[in-house]
């Protein structure tokens, strides 16, 4: 508030002397003090914010990645399941990641095939963690190169953009719906690969956030679970990607061997087949009649330990 001062002496002088010339100086001094105090408070708040969490609200010490694997303890040998868990745990320790091993029985699938459990499992992990990335990796897979990390080798925007397959039919070879041609690396929210038959849902990475939750909730919609898709959740995924532009617009498709190399014996014409040094090998389809997941994984169950120990 501005104070008006008299221009002449009053006929009734006050009982105490008034030094008009000091008032502006005092106001300026007080304003300066208040300003310095406000600035100090802002700096303190900023410092505290840096100490207790990052700018995106991630608490300090939060693992950047959670590896999610749904395990089937009912139908597979205990030793095999333990080895699969150890494979993820040892890799996670190297990079400061977290692991999550639910079972299909942890989720009410309403009679849908057990493969659907991957979707609520990732959603479950996302609801209970502030991590940035959630990597779903099927049980019948092994991490073979512990030096590859998710943030640098895959999700780094420049690296991701250099790998993205743009203008690719979602369902090869001739789907009219194709991956987004103008997607940038920092815009991608979902990363996955293709095999010879279509989208490969056995290894995918989704970023934490509202879009990631929307994607998982859409995929797990009761209508899709009750529909008799030939390949259950995999065909449901292909459906929503092709019919929901909001999902297609954030999908980054990368080469199969990046996160989902196939067992050579079952890779058509060697497409996407595992080569020594690849990040992951997945024994896709090994649960089918006439195949044996444990037997197919056998040569690699000890090999991954040898590789890890040598790094």
Automatic annotation (TrEMBL):
State the Pfam families in the record.
Glyco_transf_34
The entry's keywords: Glycosyltransferase, Membrane, Transferase, Transmembrane, Transmembrane helix
The GO annotation for biological process reads:
protein N-linked glycosylation
PANTHER family xrefs: ALPHA-1,6-MANNOSYLTRANSFERASE MNN11-RELATED
The regions listed as transmembrane in this protein's record are 31-49
Indicate yes or no for the key word RNA-binding: no
Extract the GO molecular function terms from the UniProt entry: alpha-1,6-mannosyltransferase activity
The family database entries (InterPro entries) matched by this protein are listed as:
Glyco_trans_34 (IPR008630), Nucleotide-diphossugar_trans (IPR029044)
Family in the record? Belongs to the glycosyltransferase 34 family.
**Under which name does UniProt file this protein?**
Uncharacterized protein
Q: Which Gene3D superfamilies match?
A: Spore Coat Polysaccharide Biosynthesis Protein SpsA, Chain A
Transmembrane in keyword set: yes
